[in-house]
Amino acid sequence: MSNKAVFFVKKGLMAVLLAGFLSLVLSVGFSGSAGAAQSDILITGSTTVLPIMQKAGEAFMAVNPGIPLAISGGGSGNGIKALNEGLCQIAMSSRDIKSSEVEAGKGRNVNHFRIAVAVDALLPVVHPDNPVKNLSMEQLRDIYAGKIRDWKEVGGQDGNIVVVSRDSSSGTFESWGDFVMKGEKVLPAALMQASNGGVVQTVAGNRRAIGYIGFGYLGKTVKQINVNGVEATTETALSNTWPIARELYVFTNGAPEGNVKKVIDFLLDPQKGQKIVGETGFIPLPVK
Q1: Total of domains in the chain
Q2: What is this structure's pTM?
Q3: Does 32 map to a domain?
Q4: Is 35 a member of any domain?
C-alpha cells in the first residue's frame, strides 16, 4: 500500500473515531437533560391522584421556584414499587398499601408513611343516551362478573353490555374489587383501560358500555349512575352514604422531611392544596 493510501486510511479512521466521540458526548448531554435533575422531587403513581398533584405541583413551584417537582402517572402499584426501589420520594395511590408491598419495602429499609390527601367517590358511568339511572351493588357485581350481559335485564334497552374496567396495576381496579366485586373476578372480555381518561373515552364512544371512574373525571361525555338509589355527591361521599367512597393517598419513606415535607404541607393546607383538590373535581378532606 502506498504512503498516500495509508494517509487516507488513517484520516478516515480518525474521522470515524471523532464522530463516535462526538456522538457519545451529545448522547450523554441530551439524556442528562431529558431526565429529571438530581435535585428534583420525583412523584409518581396513581392516575386518579395525578390531576390533583399536577395542579398542586404547578402552584407549589410558583411559590417555591427552587424546589422542582417531576410528576408522572403509571398506576398506584407502580408508584409504590418506585418508592420501594428508591426511584421516587412521593408515591401517589388511590388505595391503601398491600402487606406484600410493605414486606418488599422492608428489605430495602423503606418505612412507608401514609398521608390522606383527598376523598374520592368511585362512579359507575354509562353513555349519556343510556336510559338506566340506577343500579344496585349486586347488579354492578353481576355485570362485571359477566352474569348480567344484556341491558334489558336491568331496565335498559335490549343490547349486550360492554364492560369497561381499569387494568390490574390500578389502585382504582383494586378499590372496585374491594367495594363491588367482593371476591368475584372481572370477566375476561372486559375492556381494560390504563387510566380514568381511557375509561371516559371508551364509554363516551359506545352506547352499550359501562365503566367506573374517580369523582374528578366526571364530565358531560358520560353519565353518572346512582347506586342503591343514592347519588354520589360531596356530602354522600364524606358521610359514607355513597357505598363506593375512598380516601386518596400519598406515601413517603418515613415521615416527610425537608422539601418533601413542604410539598406535603402544601397539599394539606386548606387554602392551598385542599382548595386545589376541590378545583380538580375531587373532595377535600374534612376539616378537623
Answers
A1: 2
A2: 0.82
A3: no
A4: no
